[in-house]
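Hey,
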Amino acid sequence: MEVRAVTQDNDQLSIIRELYEAITSSCRSQKIIQIVQIPQNENRIATYDDKANDTLEIGISKPTYLAMFKQSHDYWYRYMESSQCTLDKLEITILRELYLMTLGYLITANDHHSIMNLHELIVQILGNFETDIEIISCFLTSRLKRINKSSLLWHWMKKMTILVIFNKLEEKQGSQHLSDSQFYNKIVSRAFRSCELHYMNYYANNFIHWIIQFNMIVLGIEDGDYLFHQLQKHCRQALLDSSLWMNMKNYIKCIQGSVQHDNQIIEEYNRINLSYGVPLRIHSKKQLISPNKSDEDIIVGEFQWLVKVQCKNVAPFSNLIELAQTKTVLKRLNELIQLHGFKHNAAKIESLIELRSRMIG
């Protein structure tokens, strides 16, 4: 494939390049991509810098969005017809254009396995993992439902989280704290933003659950309760989102050490590192790093908050009650119902407490 300097006149990937520049040139913590109506004489991609909420809103018109897919599709097939080189033999200029092409596909086509595999290979050759975390995490917080819930993109985020964040902590045995990692805070906050934008987002919540398990079970590291505070905030904002409240349950279970299948998580870590030629290996789970709050503190604290706000949904209460390990905690939960004059489904919740008490024996 002929290498030519990209100009405004011959740019075959102009739209994804414009989106790439909009994302990478902004320092906002959240960058939300969405389809909007844009007048024909305006720019194809419109941005609004919401300083108050530390958010960059990125709007793309529907015709532009479809044109971005066509540009990427056409570029890929022209490359396939003309290229006789393997990826590792290509000029950097062409590799960077192919990288943009894969981004154009990934933001417009749902779960394209061939393009995803190509994208991973190009990132590995270019070594631009940190840039890719920035862009892919923005794709996953978009208002584009098919992209936001792409299993391939979420799995790729897992791989990059291991390679860019967790492995660096493993290499620095004396410094085991995630709160110093800007990338960690970014991916966690964006995963929760994805949950916020798309109700009961299974894939985003699964990623959060995976992070919880990795922190507490696989690597035995802490994040200064950053993830917990994000989880608490979003659970309280979405009382009906059972996926979020299930992750509250998962978080407490990790503290209690009652998580199953931890060997599978360790095997996944080793498998991903092996596939990228990384010598780091973990053979057994690390000693659990206890958060600042105990499981009982969280159960009682969240239960009390639910009672105070007169939560009508039984599911959050049920999740917390199931995790109580002693009758002392259950007695405290019953007292909170009486103390705050809780009315909604009080009898049902009290019966759940009684049932749990009998199970404890």
